[in-house]
Protein: Ribose import permease protein RbsC
Amino acid sequence: MNSTTAKETDTQAWSSRVIRQLRSGIGPLLAALIIICIVLSFASPEFLTTSTLTNIMVQVSVVGIAAVGGTFVIITSGIDLSVGSLVALSGMVAATLMAGSTPDNLGLGLAGLAIALAVGAGVGALNGFAVAWLRLVPFIVTLAMMAMGRGLTLAISDGRTKFDFPNAFTVFGAKSIAGLPMPMIVMLVVFVIGHVLLRKTTFGHQVFAVGGNREAARLAGIPVQRVMFITYTLAGVTAAIAGIVLAGRLNSALPSAANGLELQVIAGIVIGGTSLAGGRGSIVGTFIGVVLIGVINVGLSLLGVNPFWTQFIQGGVIFAAVMLDALSQRRKN
Structure:
């Protein structure tokens, strides 16, 4: 009897959490996504097919992976403009190191992946150190890192695209498991890990506290500088994973890869309900926001809309999301 009561209590608690999340902004966002999908399915019968939906998930995978780390940064009221350059740099580092790997020399390939992830973590850590301990403005720090990362990518590649990688590399972007593309699988795994880290751990609670009120968090004994340092490092790691997936998917590493990706990442995060003022956001919301952008892009493409208008509409969605966030902050104040 006690076990039955405990199960009922757990079920009620879970239901309450779901209802609270739906009321907090995820519900209307999810409803908007569903309505847009229904409208597009009527306007273009090709839209609501397995191949199209899978294609959407593959297309948003790179943005989605990078957006997980970016969500942590923005919740702490920070910003990361270096993510696009870091995606390109990590992919180029992995491609350069793995160019000589073969099925008989798998160790070299794995070392290439490990070093690419280390590069992402290192750049993210440098951003975090500058913001947390040197107290530099995140916008300026990551803007400088954006230029440095892109320049380093060009220097490593000598401005040339690298082609033809071993299977150990392309498996992350071009292969499938049980009919599901690897980019989609990697993205979903990263989102699940990010959600658990943000909602189920002490670190996640500290991230919200730092973003909500940095001074109050410090007085409460939260290591504010360490939390900020870790969030930027995490953003670097997710950007590196996104870079590996992108290069593997294209079977090439381009010096100009992911140009402007930082804007798409920030757009997905903000549309997903994460406040630029900090202290509020969710990984689930970011996932819906990223998918929403993908749905709009693919849907308008199927309808034959001029790509220039697609970009305009995407910008309008971002503007609306930022405006709603600003109005929400004013009501709270």
About this structure: The chain has one domain: 26-332. Residues 2-43 form the longest helix (42 residues). The mean pLDDT is 86. The longest strand covers residues 162-163.
